[in-house]
Design brief:
Length: 158
């Protein structure tokens, strides 16, 4: 899925304003000003559109985790885990971590978007790439998850 679309949908679902978005990028160790942010949020057919690269998207997701859950302190003597390459699987995983969602929460969110998936299918997206049950997460899964998030956070009474 296009990173700019993910950014726009997360912003809408979580009702994040410009200042909060800038702060989240800063928590992910990326400097973004309001003009840059507005260009990243534009659709690809609008004038001034700037494509959101994987590095900046990763910084936003890491910042979102820090914003929602607090800074993770690495214990002394332990090396920081290297960042995984940005894929739909890693986007889904980072959103899950940021929102502190369990498997049931993920399934409910997908169900809100009228997308049914089994626990086994869902867990396959969070496996290591070499695992026999690993499965690539398609754009449709991310799109439906983000749609479900918007319903979950924007219309909590449903």
């Amino acid at each position: 899925m296009i990173n700019n679309d993910v950014l726009r949908r997360v912003r809408y679902a979580l009702d994040l304003n410009d200042q909060t978005m800038i702060e989240i990028f800063a928590l992910g160790e990326a400097e973004v000003n309001r003009i840059n942010l507005l260009n990243l949020l534009k659709k690809d057919n609008q004038e001034g559109y700037v494509e959101l690269d994987n590095k900046l998207m990763d910084a936003f997701l890491n910042g979102l985790i820090t914003h929602k859950r607090g800074k993770l302190e690495t214990p002394p003597g332990q090396a920081k885990k290297p960042d995984m390459p940005l894929t739909n699987n890693s986007i889904l995983k980072k959103l899950r971590i940021a929102l502190n969602f369990k498997e049931e929460d993920m399934l409910k969110t997908l169900k809100l978007a009228d997308f049914k998936i089994s626990k086994g299918e869902l867990s396959a997206f969070f496996r290591q790439k070499g695992h026999k049950n690993y499965r690539d997460c398609g754009d449709q899964i991310i799109r439906n998850f983000l749609q479900g998030l918007a319903i979950h956070f924007r219309k909590p009474d449903e």
